[in-house]
Amino acid sequence: MPVPSLPAAQALALHDLVTPTAHGIASRMLAKASGGNVTLFSFDAGQALTTHTSAFDALVLVLEGRLDLTVDEARVEAVPGTVVRLPANVPHAVDAPEASRMLLIMLKDLA
Q1: Cβ distance 91 to 54 under 8 Å?
Q2: 88 with 75: CB under 8 angstroms?
Q3: What is the pLDDT of residues 47-71, one digit of tens each?
């Protein structure tokens, strides 16, 4: 079921859909369905998501800034225009050395 706060049939600027939080992380879910969800994140410089796992595969699309991701043991620097796949049940973390925005797409295996 779509998240009702996002209007249909409009071209919306991703930059305007989440308000950055000083010294924090802001997020806004753009869509949610039984097969997964799409969430927009804004990180202030120096913010991070500590190591965790998810039951879903995920795609991180970097929109602004730079994110340093750790996926299992691999370190990945992601910049605007890049995508990083986070496999389900694999430990991962996100660090924002500068103010950054990302789109997180979580995909549930329906098989």
Answers
A1: no
A2: no
A3: 999 999 999 999 999 999 999 999 9
